[in-house]
Amino acid sequence: MTQPINLARLLTLQSYGADSPANSFIGGTPEGATGRSFGGQIMAQAAYATGLTVSEEHRMHSLHGYFMRPGDASKQTAFNVEEIFTGGTFATRRAQGYQGDVPIMSMIASHQRPTDGESFSDSFDLSTLTAPTEIPSLRDTYRHLSHLPAGADILTRPFDFRYVEGDVMQSVPKQQTTQHVWIKTIAALPESALLHRAALIYVSDYLFMEPALRGFGRSWLTPGMKCASLDFAVWFHSDFNVNEWLLYELHTVNAGHGRALTQGKFYNEQGVLVASAAQEVMLRLP
Fold first, then answer.
1. CA 12 – CA 7 distance, rounded (Å)
2. 3-state secondary structure of 242
3. 45, 173, 192, 225: which could join 27 in a potential S-S bond, CB 3.0 to 4.6 Å?
4. Phi, psi (degrees; rounded to nearest 5) at 97
5. Nearest CA to 155 among 32, 265, 243, 39?
6. Which helix (H) or strand (E) segment is 82 a member of?
7. Which of the 8 DSSP states describes residue 81?
8. What angle do CA 153, 44, 81 make, to 5 degrees?
């Protein structure tokens, strides 16, 4: 059976070399990967790189990035991190990802030391949704397609996906602009706030396109469709564990002119909002 990507190894970067600047890193690629680089991987690796340049006390709380060119999935990506600001509470870093001498993405990430104070947050009544243990996993649903490129892509994903409203791989169960998906890692990650944040960035990018597809009544198999991620933003509200079930709620708020904007929210098993995300995508329908 096709094995899932080793996420911990993929996201843990290496120093670029003894003769390179201290804030330069190399990001690997999944074995045998071909075609266009997965945007979630590139953003997650860039975010991880920024976290390596701040103190252990600092926790990444937000990032904003742009994809500039498609990357080659078979090639490693070099990440250069620039120190923009380091204060008593916040530390801001800029990361650029390169393949060869060509930049393929750019990001600014902010990190914060823990701060006490009053708080409140959105929550979700998880009892209103079908539990993940009662929903078939995407991996099991498409296990029989392992000999096809699309099936192999699903089976190598390092996360378990369980769709409350049904997936849109081949058809659209219901035309709507919101979806709920339970996610968690297949192989548990080590305890590391930075690694778990990078993993959430990674997995979020798989699904941003789908509420827009649902709204148009189209599936991933729509002939002649062209799509690509344009930008990326994530806000982390509190610590979480990607080895446990998280509910990923996505809603496309606008689609037109060849673009679609989707907002996402992540809730833990207690229904507490732990992270928010947003992305605009290019979506050209035939």
1. 8
2. coil
3. 45
4. -105, 130
5. 32
6. strand 77-86
7. E
8. 145
SS3 44: helix
Q: Count CB-CB contacts under 10 A for residue 261.
A: 18
Tokens of 254: 């606008």
Q: How far apart are CA 238 and CA 155, in angstroms?
A: 30
Distance CA 51, CA 91 (A): 10
Here the tokens at position 217 are: 């009544």
CA dihedral 145, 199, 283, 147 (to 10 degrees): -10
Cβ neighbours around 164 below 10 Å, total:
17
Per-residue pLDDT of the chain (286 residues; tens, 9 = 90+): 478 999 999 999 987 766 666 799 999 999 888 899 999 999 999 999 999 999 999 999 999 999 999 999 999 999 999 999 999 999 999 999 999 999 999 999 999 999 988 999 999 999 999 999 999 999 999 988 877 777 788 999 999 999 999 999 999 999 999 999 999 999 999 999 999 999 999 999 999 999 999 999 999 999 999 999 999 999 999 999 999 999 999 999 999 999 999 999 999 999 999 999 999 999 999 8
Q: Which pair of tokens denotes residue 42?
A: 């590139």
Residue type, position 119, single letter? S
**pTM score, whole prediction:** 0.95
C-alpha to C-alpha distances, 22 to 15, 136, 162, 175, nearest whole angstrom: 8, 46, 41, 50
